[in-house]
Specification:
CATH topology: Rossmann fold
Structural class: alpha/beta
Largest sheet: 6 strands, mixed
Strand order of the largest sheet: 5-6-7-3-8-9
Number of helices: 6
Oligomer: single chain
CATH architecture: 3-Layer(aba) Sandwich
Radius of gyration: 17 Å
Strand content: 25-35%
Bound molecules: adenosine-5'-diphosphate, magnesium ion
Helix content: 25-40%
Number of strands: 9
Number of domains: 1
């Protein structure tokens, strides 16, 4: 498949923090492409470079060497981000939090294919619409974070340890929500995790060890 099919493309992309003797190579030259429909888990222990790689894919960090490009995306609005926790705005209720990226982007309700109500419904959080973040559980907050991404209708969803602070059952529901979100919008999905049970729910797995992204055949 030609590289232009890629939504995001890493070519020998490396990320180093600091300089000289204190430099930390968080990502050694990584080659990776993510295409429409992909369901990819980046799996590895804490400190292996998963978040750093995801930040490169998101454009939140520039590679120190090598290149990251987004040949199949129109811009950063095509990327939906889900973090580990605490990403909701405390003063806004769940419906307002879900609508926030659309409001900030100036996209009126009439131009959205998927309403905030539908997005909350798809992650099983419709009944939480009027609650404040402090009035819902951590697992519920993560599902709302997924609904917020859903409402944005991105073409690439990047989730950094979205289940990292949740018990297995709650985490499984958040993962359900992410998979539903990706299926409903047709977005590609990349999830980082240290949990093999979470990784097993994605279609493809790539391991990270000490900043190195292992080849598919070397991934356990
Ligand atoms: P993971 O997400 O797998 O836990 P990270 O990508 O967060 O791994 O970190 C990879 C390595 O990069 C670690 O050694 C970490 O300490 C280092 N690192 C991450 N972010 C920074 C930063 N902003 N400044 C310095 N070092 C960092
Ligand atoms: Mg991390």
């Amino acid at each position: 498949m030609p590289a232009t099919d890629a939504l995001v493309l890493c070519e020998n992309a490396a990320l180093t923090f600091g300089r000289g003797t204190t430099a930390v190579v968080a990502v050694h030259g990584a080659d990776l492409s993510v295409r429409a429909g992909d369901r990819l888990a980046i799996v590895g222990p804490s400190g292996s470079g998963k978040s750093s790689l995801l930040h490169l894919l998101a454009g939140l960090e520039r590679p120190t060497s090598g290149a990251v490009s987004w040949p199949g995306l129109g811009g950063s609005a095509d990327i939906g981000l889900v973090f580990q926790a605490d990403s909701l705005v405390p003063a806004l209720d769940v419906a307002e939090n879900t609508a926030l990226p659309l409001v900030l982007a100036g996209r009126p309700e009439a131009r959205r294919r998927l309403s905030v109500t539908e997005a909350l419904g798809l992650v099983g959080a419709a009944d939480l619409a009027d609650r404040l973040p402090e009035e819902i559980s951590g697992g519920q907050a993560q599902r709302v974070a997924v609904a917020r991404v859903l409402a944005q209708e991105p073409r690439l969803i990047l989730a950094d340890e979205p289940t990292g602070r949740l018990d297995h059952a709650t985490g499984a529901r958040v993962l359900d929500a992410l998979l539903v979100a990706a299926d409903r919008t047709g977005a590609a999905l990349v999830v980082t995790t240290h949990d093999p049970a979470v990784a097993a729910r994605l279609t493809v797995r790539r391991a990270m060890r000490d900043g190195r992204l292992l080849a598919p055949e070397d991934t356990p």
